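Notes taken during the Thursday session

The instructor put the following on the board and asked us to keep it in front of us for the whole hour. The protein is histidine kinase. We were told not to look anything up and to reason only from what is written here. First, the residues (251 in total):
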Amino acid sequence: MLQWENPGLVVGWIWIGIGLFFLTTVLITLLIINYLKSIRKNKQRVIQLVRNTQTECWENTIHLQERDRERLAEELHDNIISRLNLIRLNMNHKNRDELNLDLKKSMQLIRELSHNLTPPDLSEIELTDLIADYLNQIGKNIEIAYHHIVTDTSISSPVKLNIFRIVQELVTNVLKHANATRIDVSLRISLEYLMLTIEDNGSGFKQGTHYNGIGLRNIQSRAQKIQAVYKLKSRPEKGTKFIACVGIVEA
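Then, after some discussion, the predicted structure tokens were revealed:
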């Protein structure tokens, strides 16, 4: 029968083993607790980030709505109401044909305003045609050159809508503030990216001045929605050039 020569030594090693097992268990427990705490903190950060993003999107949406309301009020006051008021004042001084022509012009302005404010049917029309239709209406008042190169690909509705609204915003700013006689619009769509370029020969402005904020916050909000990168170049009396690029997300 095998007997241990030193039972005390065996007992000592047993206690050392128990102690090591206990310390290992405590260490593993602490690591698990810290890991769970880290997961909870990261989860809270993600939740807060999502909330901040939702708040920012909501603020941008409200801003865009307010911009549309301001634009509608401005167009109604400066163009349509003014024209109708002139027609009323000239009813006794103009003949029927002249009054009829003035009414037709007012009706055309109302149609253009309705077209600009109404969301287009994005599933039924390509972005190139959407922009072309809009520029055809504007082209009666200014020379517009429109070039587009398109690879056979589809564009997601958010990209299509926001690019179209950016075009509207830029062209409107040119017509109101630039004193330009020509606008060049270029649209290039490949399998990987979409690039939009809008350039005018107007008065331009010094970047960093207060003019730099007129209408550009609206453009910035729409660019952020589709993760577009854009750049605006302008110099006094040298016109303004806008370039935007966005990765393609197929519909």
